[in-house]
Amino acid sequence: AEVEEGVYQLNTSWTTSAEDGQELRHVVLPEVKVSKDMTVTLDARKTVPVEIRTPRPAEQRGILSYQTYREIGGRSLTQGTMYFDIAKRLYISPTAKVTEGTFEFASRWQLVAPLVEAKVSRTRFDLGAYYMPASPLFPERGATLTAVDAGDAADADFSHARGKVAVVDNPTGAGERALVERAAAAGVRAVILVHFNDTGWTRWRPTGDRNALPTLRIGKGTGAELLARIARGSTSVRFTGTARSPYLYDVMQVSEQQVPQKVVHTVSARNSAVVRTTYADNGVTGWASEQRFGWRPYQDTAWLQYTRFVPLGFERTEYVSAGDTTWQHRVHHTTTFDVDQPLIAGMRDDPRTYRAGAQPRETWQGAVVRPSIPAGTATPTVRDGNVLRLRVPEFTDSQAGHWSPTSGGDSASAVLYRDGERVDGVGSAWQNVTVPAERARYRLDMETARDSEAWTRGVATRTSWSFESGRTDSAAPLSLLQLDYDVPVDVRNSVRGTRSHGIDVRVRAQDGLPVPRGVSVRVEASYDDGRTWSTARTHAHGHNAFRASLTPPAHGESWVTLRVTARDSAGNSVRQTVQRAYAVRR
């Protein structure tokens, strides 16, 4: 190639096969100075492994990605590569320290406890097994089963496999559902399929119709060795693992200006925040989708990071790389069909960085889920001249800053009144509305509903804000009073075991407005979905904060529907009704 004299970056990437999956290799020469004819060699033999060391055993789950950033003379280039979690290792070439411009290598890892490990008992022979997508799981305590050769999938013989694990050769990759049903009818405990490929890689899903038995797949070579062991004598396999990993390592490994001879990132509180995260369960599916998107200072947004599954009614310790990596967590209340896409549905927080050693807490979808304008939002509801810029999220939860719009299965509507007359063209609380200049009293009514088996709390809401507004010279927040709730619920958004319980309600204005004065609050509760109401005893519990005492029926389980009304001395008010805001369990 003929090029001008100057400084260049050269790089190449490729994938190689290993016994347990794929290996990614990247060779980069970030500072090649061309002043004459020359030969440049990109040598794969010089690559070294990127090692991510974690406090507890962990495996890469989901997309593994890496990228380089190079800036020379005011021009920059970011290049990235992603690969599915069949990739077991990443190798990168060490470099000299860059002296002209900026260079960075970064790799993004997401590691959790192993989903499944299958090893021949009393040996180190790891089968490299993967659950089939529709497989049920072994119990958390694991299982040890004698392995039996059941022949070919086309004519499998389960007569000697009762109470055991049947190893079935599947050279055509035929669907396993009917095969596993036959195995279950014969009393088999589990099925191992021997794939036609060298690796058994596949991806398990937590939802959908399940196979009749735990079903795993292993590679062709591993399968041949396992069958040979079975032929020589009794062989048992120990199965362990969990889909409910109590920890997650969200890692952004970064090498600035040079890739060192050894690339080792040891996860600890010295380079990570330790986030205790609760994923509240509001339905019956038991699983949700989430992703914590990470991006570097030279990027405007995240890329190469796709959807993950997370169990609900669950708390997890999450190590998140600290420093100048920006993170944004997004959590949907149910699973999404296509995990090979960035998650776009669900609640999200504001982009942020983390301080090493910090120990924040997060709760997602915690009661009470309702419409509100989050404190600190980047999109307040304002009046600018004669335009009302309404920006009220349909769903917020118990943690400040979390919000989401509607998604599939949700509905939302809004009506705006000016001095008692309906304003035309308003159907949403997230739109611009042009109104007359003169000061007037407005009422914004908003309704939401969520119809899904994955959502049984906060199934419908009605909120009405009353406020005054007139023309402004610049954008100014509207006086919509906001209600924040603190309810003593568990991870399933239920209050348990008490005859009476208290809930806290705090009233606030939008950011940029004075603190409301002369605030009063009325809290009502219904235990029959709004057919009858009782007024709760309420008293002040801090500035613009109130505590209400609720006494549900004495026996059985019940839903609590809330109706809260707040007013201030300026004449602003809000009334919010949340149907089945949370449950009471005896």
**Secondary structural class:** mainly beta
Query: How much helical structure, as a percent, in the residues?
Result: under 10%
CA-atom Rg in angstroms: 29 Å
Strand content: over 45%
List the domain count as a whole number. 3
Uncertain parts = none
Mean pLDDT: 97
Number of helices: 2
Main sheet attributes: strand count, strand direction, barrel closure = 9 strands, mixed
User: What's the total count of β strands?
Assistant: 43
Give the termini separation.
Answer: 76 Å
Shape descriptor reads globular
What does this structure look like?
A hairpin with a 4-residue loop joins β40 and β41. The chain folds into three domains: 6-113 and 245-364, no CATH class; 117-240, Glucose Oxidase, domain 1; 382-575, no CATH class. The protein is mainly beta. The protein is built from two helices and 43 strands. Strands 29, 30, 32, 33, 36, 38, 39, 42 and 43 form a nine-stranded mixed beta sheet that branches. Strands 4, 5, 6, 8, 16, 18, 21 and 24 form an eight-stranded mixed beta sheet that branches. Strands 9-15-11-12-13-14-10 form a seven-stranded mixed beta sheet, with helices on both faces.
Q: What are the main properties of this structure?
A:
2 helices, Glucose Oxidase, domain 1, mainly beta
Write the layout of secondary structure elements.
Layout: E1 6-18, E2 21-34, E3 48-53, E4 59-60, E5 64-72, E6 75-83, E7 87-92, E8 102-112, E9 117-120, E10 130-131, E11 143-152, E12 165-169, H1 177-185, E13 190-194, E14 215-218, H2 220-232, E15 236-240, E16 247-256, E17 263-266, E18 272-279, E19 287-295, E20 308-311, E21 314-321, E22 326-332, E23 347-348, E24 361-364, E25 382-384, E26 387-391, E27 395-396, E28 403-404, E29 410-418, E30 421-422, E31 430-434, E32 440-450, E33 460-469, E34 476-477, E35 482-486, E36 494-496, E37 501-508, E38 520-526, E39 534-535, E40 537-540, E41 545-550, E42 558-567, E43 573-585
